[in-house]
Amino acid sequence: MRFEGLDLNLLVALDAILEEGSVVRASQRLHLSQPAMSAAIGRLRQYFNDDIFTMSRRKLVPTPLARSLERPTRDILLRVRANLISAPGFEPANSQRRFRIVVSDYASIVLMHPVMKRVYREAPGISLELLPFNDRVDDQLERGEVDFIIMPDVNAVDDHPRQHLFADEFCCIAWTGSRKIGRSISLGRYLQLGHVTAQFGPIRRPSFEEKALARSGYKRRIEVIAPNFTTMVASVIGTDRVATVHKRLAVIFARSFPLKLLHAPVRIPAFREMLQWPASFHADPALVWMRETISDVASEIDRTPAARMRFG
């Protein structure tokens, strides 16, 4: 496709190189040969009468013009996808659409499991790709690389639509066989014990309970850093360690594993889980249907007391 003499495929190449910072990685992403990608750069240089990229210390450096084109190029490609590529009509029962959703294992168990059951019944041809959290969530939304992100509302990304899903609070969990932890836990004992926490992506950010402790001037001893909430819960079994987790998830796991739930000895504010999606795809009929499906299931969860949560 051409517009004003510009092959729009060149914008796809430009966008990939600007994001990847490498001709090799951009070529792999677009499934093109390196010579084909180099040819695309040559045509971009000819059209814009600019070097577009230069080499400095063996690194690809965008020129000022290329940098100025980054946001407009992204916006153009998003609009093309939203308005020309997306089907104008959507029939869930006949669709083969794949939805990409960034979601924690907590929300996967509490929310997405019942969502997947409903989708399986109503739209068996639809597939869901659940993606782990990383440090590029903002960029993934901005670039339209994912359809949805499910996360606490305090982490909302600006300039993109959002919708409240359900509320939850925190509690402590411990192994039922622990002799150091009884039916309740004092603040002193809580701070003495070893703790299990979770980290998503290469950078570990303070959790809800860490922020609450810091506000009160306390610090805990972290002995295990798990890659997700499920591993975090399992890591207390057979030990005298304690973990502070979402109550809905804790109740579900306590029905199948030797865990006891305890009231947290430090005040941790409740939170709300939230759904976000790229602003460019707000009117996409498929995304509208999926938003409504997720919202309907979330409303049922929100009405269900945490103590009555079940899996299945």
TrEMBL record:
> Do you know which InterPro entries this protein is assigned to?
LysR-type_TF, LysR_HTH_N, LysR_subst-bd, NodD_PBP2, WH-like_DNA-bd_sf, WH_DNA-bd_sf
Cross-referenced Gene3D superfamilies, in alphabetical order? Periplasmic binding protein-like II, Winged helix-like DNA-binding domain superfamily/Winged helix DNA-binding domain
Has keyword Iron?
Answer: no
Residues annotated as signal peptide:
none
Please name the GO terms that the record assigns under molecular function: DNA binding; DNA-binding transcription factor activity
Is Nucleus tagged as a keyword? no
Going by the UniProt record, its keywords in alphabetical order are:
Activator, DNA-binding, Nodulation, Repressor, Transcription, Transcription regulation
Q: The HTH lysR-type domain covers which part of the protein?
A: 6-63
State the Pfam families in the record: HTH_1 (PF00126), LysR_substrate (PF03466)
Q: Family per UniProt?
A: Belongs to the LysR transcriptional regulatory family.
Q: Which PANTHER family match?
A: HTH-TYPE TRANSCRIPTIONAL REGULATOR LEUO, HTH-TYPE TRANSCRIPTIONAL REGULATOR LEUO-RELATED
Function as written in the Swiss-Prot or TrEMBL entry: NodD regulates the expression of the nodABCFE genes which encode other nodulation proteins. NodD is also a negative regulator of its own expression. Binds flavonoids as inducers.
Q: What is the protein's given name?
A: HTH lysR-type domain-containing protein
